[in-house]
Write a structure and sequence with these properties.
- The protein is an alpha+beta fold.
- Helices cover 17% and strands 34% of the residues.
- The strands form 5 sheets. Strands 22, 23, 24, 25, 26, 27 and 28 form a 7-stranded antiparallel beta sheet that branches. A 6-stranded antiparallel beta barrel has the order 1-2-3-6-5-4.
- It starts with 22 loop residues before the first helix and ends in a 6-residue tail after the last strand.
Length: 477
């Protein structure tokens, strides 16, 4: 289906005229829009299914202890098995019966049933699931099923019309409409260290039971898997969230082909770039993603990534959010080569990394990170001057003091501290301390009197000049 292009003519002043639509013409345009929505809904509902689950809960009297075999022929009154049920939605991805849904829809289910839009029912088998993206795949034995048309979620734009299809509150084949209200949302709802969240936010009504259903565009293409809602009453309050189909499809393809997700891994800790850091690195405005940590023995370390680098692009794609970078990496496979455009100090360089596999024991921070000392009182993090930090911040080999490696909200940022500043001394009326290490810096902070003005002598990274920065520390008495 072609996208509808509507042109509106506004009349501004007496010198501009526009043809006014007749009642019939206006009604015909509305009918055309209406016909488009009904066509999209008809196509999408054929490919969206309802998923019901059953789970047998262990009787209370059996939990935590094993009963002798001869007791199994008898049953105490409270030993009846309890059965819980759940409902969600799914999407027919292939004509031979592979169905995409959310992990939380089928998690811990003993029985999975798929109900088609025409009320046919199939018993489904779990093919695999991925808790880190909340994606799961089940299989039904069917032929010539109506598979959905796949779109490209990388092209989704804020403001475009979308339809959400699913079984909210057990109301099967329900269609709601709205617009994309935001992209790239990270909600921290999956709640695991290496989880990937890069949700499309929509204002189409989504309620419990919609999970695993389809988010489609005006071309009847699947662009997302409806997953979550923002709510204070367990019902829809205007914000729903869908997993981008490009991410969900990659996870599904891995599960079908290998029985598990083969997710690429770079090995860095990330955060957004602040306005102060953008200024310090000469970026003009906050953009890119700051590498806060480089983990040991990882593709990032081997590719010469360094703490304080700012990633601007991956394979030509701009990145401005940590979760967006994670999502791009998660869509690649171990062994893939990725090209990164990186801002290091005041220059832009290109790094090439061969991506690896997530370590089973989790990432281990590089040794240089252990040398960092953070001050919650000032909101800055400093590190000892080592060969690594001197090279990373383009300092001279004879530099003394400690280098600022992070600036958060607090008196330090307000006073003008920037990443790459070198702190030489900390002074107050009651004390004057030369800083030679992060331990000296930490000790000086402990001696500062709260509520009284203090200043630090710093050497700016880019021009080498010494400056005084005045601040009032907020240190608990």
């Amino acid at each position: 289906m072609k996208r509808l292009a509507l042109t509106f003519v506004f009349v501004l002043g007496s010198g501009i005229s526009a043809h006014a639509l007749s009642d019939k013409e206006a009604i015909n345009q509305l009918k055309a829009i209406n016909q488009a929505f009904t066509s999209i809904a008809a196509q999408a509902t054929e490919s969206v299914v309802t998923i019901t689950t059953k789970r047998v809960e262990e009787p209370r009297s059996r939990r935590g202890r094993r009963m002798p075999d001869f007791f199994h022929q008898f049953q105490f009154p409270d030993q009846e098995e309890r059965e819980s049920s759940g409902i969600g939605s799914g999407i027919i991805m292939t004509s031979d019966g592979y169905v995409l849904t959310n992990n939380h829809v089928i998690e811990d289910a003993d029985e999975i049933t798929v109900i088609m839009s025409d009320n046919r029912e199939y018993s489904a088998e779990l093919v695999g699931r991925d808790a880190l993206t909340d994606v799961a795949v089940v299989k039904i034995e069917g032929e010539n099923l109506k598979e959905i048309q796949i779109g490209d979620s990388d092209n989704v734009q804020i403001g475009e019309w979308v339809l959400a299809v699913g079984a909210p509150l057990d109301l099967r084949s329900t269609v709601t409409s709205g617009i994309v209200s935001a992209i790239g949302r990270s909600l921290d709802i999956i709640g695991q260290e290496l989880s990937v969240e890069d949700f499309i936010q929509v204002d189409a009504a989504i309620n419990p039971g919609n999970s695993g259903g389809a988010l489609v565009n005006l071309d009847s293409e699947l662009i997302g898997v409806n997953t979550a809602i923002a709510t204070r009453n367990r019902g829809f309050v205007g914000y729903g969230f869908a997993i981008p189909i490009n991410l969900a499809k990659k996870v599904m393809d891995d599960i079908v082909a290998h029985g598990e997700v083969r997710r690429a891994y770079l090995g860095v800790g990330l955060r957004t770039v602040s306005a102060a850091e953008a200024d310090a690195f000469g970026l003009g405005r906050p953009r890119g993603v700051l590498i806060e940590t480089v983990f040991s023995d990882t593709p990032a370390e081997k590719a010469d990534f360094r703490r304080g680098d700012i990633v601007l692009e991956i394979d030509g794609q701009l990145v401005n959010r940590p979760n967006h970078l994670q999502s791009i990496i998660a869509r690649k496979h171990p062994g893939d080569v990725a090209n990164f455009e990186v801002r290091r100090n005041d220059r832009t360089i290109t790094l090439k990394a061969t991506l690896g596999t997530i370590p089973k024991d989790g990432p281990v921070a590089a040794a240089s990170d252990a040398e960092a000392q953070e001050s919650s009182a000032l909101g800055i993090t400093v590190s000892d001057l080592t060969s690594e930090t001197i090279e990373a911040f383009n300092l001279s080999a004879d530099t003394k003091g400690v280098v600022v490696t992070r600036v958060d909200r607090g008196p330090g940022r307000d006073a003008g501290f920037r990443m790459g500043d070198v702190v030489i001394s900390v002074r107050q009326k009651e004390m004057d301390k030369t800083i030679g290490s992060s331990t000296d810096f930490d000790s000086a902070l402990e001696e500062l009197k709260p509520g009284r003005a203090a200043f630090s002598v710093i050497r700016k990274m880019r021009n080498g000049e010494d400056r005084y920065l005045f601040l009032t520390p907020r240190i608990p008495e």
